[in-house]
Amino acid sequence: MPRSHPPRHPDADAPIAGPARPAQRRWDLAALRRRLAIGLALSAMAILLVLPLVLIFTEALSKGLDIALEALAEPEAWSAIRLTLTVAAIAVPINAICGTAAAWCIGRFEFPGRALLTTLIDLPFSVSPVISGLVWVLLFGANGYFGAWLDRHDVRIVFALPGLVLATMFVTFPFVARSLISLMREQGAAEEEAALTLGANGWQIFVRVTLPNIFWAMLYGVLLCNARAMGEFGAVAVVSGHIRGQTLTMPLYVEALFNDYEWIGAFSVAALLSMLALVTLALRMLLEWRIERDRSAGV
Amino acid sequence: MSHRLTRRGALGAVLGMVAGGTARAADAAALLNVSYDPTRELYRDFNKAFVAQWKKSSGQTVAINQSHGGSGAQTRSVLDGLQADVVTLALAADIDALARRGLLATDWQTRLPNNASPYTSTIVFLVRKGNPKQIADWGDLTKPGVEVITPNPKTSGGARWNVLAALAWARRQPGATAETEEAYLRALFRQVPVLDTGARGSTTTFARRGLGDVLLAWENEAHLARKEFGETDFAIVTPSVSVLAEPPVAVVDSVADKRGTRTLAEAYLRHLYTAEGQDIAARNFYRPRDAAIAARHTSVFPTIAMATIEDFGGWDKAQAAYFADGGLFDRVFTPGK
Amino acid sequence: MMVEMRDLRKTFGAAAALDGLSLSVGKGEFLALLGPSGSGKTTLLRVLAGLEFVSSGSIAIGGRPIQDVPARERQIGLVFQHYALFRHMTVARNVAFGLEVRPKRNRPSAAAIRDRVAELLEMMEIGDLGGRYPDQISGGQRQRVALARALAVEPALLLLDEPFGALDAKVRRNLRVWLRALHDRMGLTSIFVTHDQAEALDMADRVAILRAGRIEQVDTPDAVSRHPANDFVREFMR
User: Fold this and answer.
1) Taking the CA of residue B129 as centre, how many other CA atoms within 13 Å lie in the half-sphere pointing to its CB?
2) Average pLDDT over chain B, rounded to whole?
3) Between chain B's N and C termini, which has fewer beta carbons within 10 Å?
C-alpha cells in the first residue's frame, strides 16, 4: 500500500524561522518521531490487513466478474454456502440464548463457582480450534465415549452437520456471553428489582427491562459470533470429513478449491467471506457507537 | 424463564440435527470414496464415467461423494467413523491400519488384482522452461546454486517417496555405502529452501510462487502442474532411477455391509481395472496396469528403473529407519539452516 | 399497627445484617431509619420490599404476614437510592410500568393508565416531562419520577432509600418539605432510610436509630434528641 505522505519536515510546522531553541528542537524531534511511528504503524496495518483483502478481490476478479460469479454458482459452492448458513443459523441463536443466560447468571448473581464459570466461558478462546474440533471426535467419533451407542442407533454426529454445529458452537460460545457480562455487571440489578417491586413477573422483567438494556450489546455479540461461525476453519476441519458437496463449509471449500488449482473459485468464495467480514466490520462500528451511547446514558 | 427457553431450543435443534444425520446415513444410493490429495482430478473423471456406466448397466442412479485430504489424516477420519464405503489411499500401510481395527478383512490386498492397486505412480522432476540449471538426474540436484522444492517427509506421504527415490539412486552409485547414501541425502536437503506440509503446497510454491529450480513430485502431479500452470513454462525430467508407488484401494467391509452398498462399492473398484478405468487413470497421469492401455501412453510414461518399497524392507522398516523421530531424515535435515 | 416486624434476623455469611430487630410502624406514619453505614438500614428496607428474605422472624402488614410473599405481590413501593429508572423508557412509560405489567383482568385501560400517569406527574410537578428520557432530566426530577412510579401502583407502604442522597443541598431542602407535604396529603405510610440526622429529625414523625442490625431507640425526634437511650444514640445525634 502506498504511504500517503512522507513525514513532513519538522520545521514545516514551526511558526518561527531562525535558530531553533533547544526546547523547540526537542519538541520537533518528538513530533517527528511520533509521526514516524504513526506512519510505520499505518503502513504495517496496510500491509497486514488491507493488502490481503485487496489481493483476494483482485484475484477473484482477475478473469472478469462473470467467471467469478460462475464459480460461485457451482453446485458445490452453493452447497458450501448453504451449509455455512445452516450451521450459523443453528449455532448462533443457541449461543445467543445460552450466552445471554450465562451472562445473566454471572452478571446478576453472586454464587460459589462464579469466577470459575467466568473463566470457563473464555475456555474456547484459549484452546486451539483444532482441539475444539477433536473434543467432539473424541466424544462422538467411532472410538469415542458415545461412539458405539451412536453407531448402533445409526446417528451421525461427527463428519456430519451435527458435528459441524457442535464444533462451531463451542468455538463461538464466548462472544455473546463476553459482550454482555461486563455490561450487565455495570448496569446492576436495580432496574430489574424496581420492576419486581412494581409487580412485574420474570418474563416481563426480561422482555421489558433486561433485554432492551442489553439489546445492542447482545446484537454486537451475535454479530461477532456469526462472523466467527461462518469463518471458522480449524475446528470444523477436524469434524468435517471433507465430503465434497456435503460437509465442506465455505472456508473448507476455499481450501479444497485451492488444492484443486481452482484459483478463481477459491478467491471468489474467499471474496464472499471477506464481504461478510466487511459488512460485519461496518455493523460492528455502528453497534459500538450505539452501545457507547447507551452506556453513557446510564442513569 | 430464559433457562426453559434455552432447553427447549437446544432440544429442538438437537432433534433436528439427529433427524438430518439419520436421513443421510440411510441414503444407500450413494458411495463415499475417501481418498488422498493428488487423486482429485482422477476421481472427478472416474466418478462421472462410473455413474454413467452404472446407470446403463443397472438402471440405478448413484452419487459418488468424494473426500480428499492427507492420506494419514483420512485414515484417521475413517477410524473415527467417517462412513467411507471405499478407501483409495496412498499407502497400503494406511489401509492395513483400518484392517487392524476390524473395519475390513486383513486379506483385503488379495481381493483385487495387482495387490489391490489399479494404478501406480513414480517420482519425477519438474523443472523450469528450458531446464536452465541442466538437471538430468539425482546427481545434478546437489550442484551449487540448485534449489530443490519438496514437501516435508514428516507430514507428507509423497515426500517420503521422494526421499526413498533419492536413496534408491544413491544406492546404485558405484562404491555406495550407508555413509554415502546419508551424505547424498544431507547434500540434497541442503538445497531445500522451504518444506511445505503437503505435495500440493510444494507444487504451488514451485509453480505459482516461483521458488526453486526443481520440484520433486509425483509423476501425475508434475503433469497436472504443467497442465495448470503452462505446458511451455515447465518441463518434466525423468531421472535414471525412481520408485514404484502402488496406491491401493479397498471396500470398507463394516461400512459397506451396514449401509448395504457392498455390490455397488465392489463394482466401483472393479471398474478401475476396466479399459475405461485404466484409460482415465492414464489420462490423469497415473500409470495404468493394463499393458494395452499403457502402450497407448508410452510418451507420457517413459520407462524408468524403479525400486519398490520391498527394496527398503517394507513400509514398517522404512518408516522406522528413515522417518521416525531420530531417523535418517532427522539426522540429515537441520531446519532453519 | 400498620407494619409489624418481629425479631428479624438476616445473615450474610457469618455477618448478621439484622440481629433480632423488632419495630412497629403506625398507619400514616412517616418513620426515619437512621444509623451509620452497615447498621442494617438498607437491608431492612430490602427485606420489607421482598428483595431479600429474612433468616427468621416475621413481618406483617395490616395484620397479614408477608415474610414469605414474593416481592411482586407485596404492593410495596420502593424508591431506590439511585432511582433505578428504566433508562430506555420515557418518563411516562416509567410511571406507567407498574400498571402495564398487571395481569389483564385488573389492568386499567390504556386511557385510564394515561390519565393516571398524567395525574401523578402533575402531582410531582413534572407534568411536562412525560416524553423525556431519564438521561434528559435533572437529578431532582428523576427523584420525582421514581416517586411517581412507585406511587402509581398505590402501595400500602412506601419505602425510600436515601431519597435525597444524590442531590445537592438546596434541592434537598426543597424536596424535603415537598415530600413531607405529599406524604400527608396522600395519606401514605412511609419508611425512609437516611444517615443524615438533621434530615431525619426535620421530616419524620418518629426516628429509629439502628446499630449492627438492632434498634437502639425509637421515638419522636424531640424525645430522641432530648433523652437519648444510651451513649451511642447520644453520640450519633450530636
Assistant:
1) 7
2) 88
3) C
The alpha carbon dihedral of A52, A56, A57, A61 has a sign of positive
CB atoms within 10 A of CB A14: 15
User: How far is CA C2 from its chain centroid?
Assistant: 15
One DSSP character per residue, C174-226 reads HHHHHHHHHHHHHT--EEEEES-HHHHHHH-SEEEEEETTEEEEEE-HHHHHH
Q: A281 CB contacts (<8 Å, ≥6 apart)?
A: none
Give me C76's grid cell.
Answer: 410495596
| Residue B15 forms contact with A (CB below 8 Å) | no
User: Looking at the complex, does the CB of residue B52 fall below 8 Å from at least one CB of chain A?
Assistant: no
Cα of A49 to nearest chain B Cα, Å = 21
pTM given for the model: 0.81
For residue B23, pLDDT beyond 90: no
* CB pair distance less than 8 Å for C72 and A200: yes
Residue of chain A nearest B34, judged by CA positions? A243
Measured between beta carbons, the chain A residues lying within 8 angstroms of C73 are 199
pLDDT score of C155: 92
* Strand spans (E) along A39-126: none
As a whole-number percent, the residues of chain B with pLDDT over 90 amount to 72
Span B237-286, pLDDT tens digits: 999 999 999 999 999 999 999 999 999 999 999 999 999 999 999 999 99
Q: Which residue has the cell 454464587?
A: A111
pLDDT at B303 over 70: yes
Assigned C-alpha cell, B273: 481395472
User: Do the two chains B and A touch, given a threshold of 8 Å on CB pairs and at least 3 pairs?
Assistant: yes
Give the domain range for residue A261. Answer: 65-298
Band the pLDDT of A299: cuts 50, 70, 90: very low
Q: Which cell goes with B40?
A: 482429485
Residue A108: band (very low, low, confident or very high) from pLDDT cuts 50, 70, 90: confident
C-alpha cell at B119: 494404478
Which part of chain B is CATH 3.40.190.10?
A: 2-119+247-296, 123-244+304-333
Which subunits have 3 or more CB–CB pairs within 8 Å of chain B? A
Kindly tell me if the per-residue pLDDT of C237 is higher than 90: no
Residues C43/C18, Cβ–Cβ less than 8 Å? yes
Residue type present at position A170: F
Percent of chain B whose predicted confidence (pLDDT) is above 70: 91
Q: Please tell me the predicted confidence (pLDDT) of residue A75.
A: 92
Measure CA of the first residue to CA of the last residue in chain C; give whole Å.
Answer: 31
User: Mean pLDDT lowest for which of A251-265, B25-39, C77-91?
Assistant: B25-39
Is the CB of residue B247 less than 8 Å from the CB of residue B93?
A: no
Q: Which residues of A touch B1 (CB under 8 A)?
A: 202-203, 206
Residue A111 touches chain C, beta carbons under 8 Å: no
A95 vs chain C: nearest CA distance in angstroms?
25
Q: Looking at the structure, tell me whether residues A33 and A163 fall in a common domain.
A: no
- Over 70: is that where the pLDDT of A43 sits? yes
Total number of domains constituting chain A: 2
> To the nearest whole number, what is the mean pLDDT of chain A?
86
Question: For domain B2-119+247-296, which architecture applies?
Answer: 3-Layer(aba) Sandwich (3.40)
A201 inside 8 A of chain C by CB: yes
Whether A208 and A245 share a structural domain: yes
Residue A7, in any domain of the structure? no
Q: To the nearest 10°, the Cα dihedral for A248, A254, A255, A257?
A: 100
Among the partner residues C86, C98, C142, nearest to A199 by beta-carbon distance: C98
What CATH number matches the domain at B123-244+304-333, 3.40.50.300, 3.90.1150.10, 3.30.1360.120, 3.40.190.10?
3.40.190.10
Mean pLDDT in residue range B183-196: 93
Contact between B305 and B150 (Cβ < 8 Å): no
Question: With pLDDT > 90 as the criterion, what percentage of chain A qualifies?
Answer: 55
